[in-house]
Amino acid sequence: MITHLEYVTHVAPEVLQSFRYRYRVGSKEEAFAVTSKWAGLMQPLPPQAYSALTANSRSITILVTTFSQGAPDGPLAEILAVLAESASRVEQPRREPLQIALRAYVGQKGPLYFKNASGGFYHRVEDVGPALTTIFEAVLTEPGIIFQINTFGPLPAAPESAFPHRQFAFIGELQSYWDKPQQQARTVDTIVRLQRSLTESGVEAHYANYPDVNLGNWANAYYGRENYAELQALKRLYDPGNAFRYPQSIRLPD
Q1: Which helix (H) or strand (E) holds 4?
Q2: What is the pLDDT of residues 93-112, one digit of tens each?
Q3: What is the 8-class DSSP label of residue 162?
Q4: How far apart are CA 151 and CA 125, in angstroms?
Q5: In a domain, 158, yes or no
Q6: Rounded to 5 degrees, what angle do the CA atoms 17, 23, 29 make?
């Protein structure tokens, strides 16, 4: 039983600046080329900044946000300039108080048919090139399929954490949306096929906060073999009756 928690708090940033760029793509090869160029630009991204690439139908949108209050300078300014060079559309930058700016990212209200799943962790998009071209082909040809890659790390080491994937530079998200219940089977089958393609490309690490019951070997994918063994030992100590259980809960040791 947890009886005491201590938190180290940080002052929240005052503002959020956002920059958005759109690119038209007509083939999976063009989509991969835009993605590869974006990923190559992200290495010098400052720690107070973040970027996401979203492929949806025949367009790719790149978002860059930063907590910096002043005009972008240094590496960030250089990155934004390169992104703007080949963009089909450059949206007006936005600078807003943090609480107001965050409202743009709260998601859609109301009922929604969807299935989202982890697209895996990786160091470079070239490491999973065959899978990404398969994914981009599905995005281009199948309605409702969206693929997103977010900048991630590397992050400072945290030896006491059960999360083992802090060294990766990127994290992917497979997303699917449909309008009618009868469209579900086809769309979900596509996500399963794309997950298989990622596995075949060597993606083994996944994010536990994007859980999916179709993910094989989920324990190692989420936690790593050593961390999962330690979590099982804690499970045996604090929950020997397995009161806390769900399809991907920590299992008791054999």
Answers
A1: none
A2: 999 999 999 888 887 777 78
A3: S
A4: 11
A5: yes
A6: 130
pTM across the whole model: 0.92
pLDDT tens-digit profile of 26-70?
999 999 999 999 999 999 999 999 999 999 999 999 999 999 988
Local confidence band at 218 (pLDDT 50, 70, 90 cut-offs): very high
Asked whether residue 147 is assigned to any structural domain, the reply reads yes
Inter-residue contact 50 to 67 (CB < 8 Å): no
Residue 245 to residue 254: CA distance in whole angstroms: 16
3-class secondary structure per residue, 175-237? EEEECCHHHHHHHHHHHHHHHHHHHHCCCCCCCCCCCCCCCCCHHHHHHCHHHHHHHHHHHHH
Compute φ and ψ for 177, nearest 5 degrees. Answer: -140, 145
Residue 252 domain flag: no
Domain that includes residue 195, residue range = 15-218
State pLDDT tens for residues 160-169. 889 999 999 9
CATH of the domain at 127: 3.40.462.20
Query: What's the residue count for the chain?
Result: 254
Report the domain count for the chain: 1
Parallel, antiparallel, or unpaired: how do β-strands 94-97 and 113-122 relate?
A: unpaired
Query: Considering the domain boundaries, does residue 73 fall inside one?
Result: yes
DSSP H helices, the chain, are 28-41, 74-85, 98-101, 129-141, 184-200, 218-223, 225-238
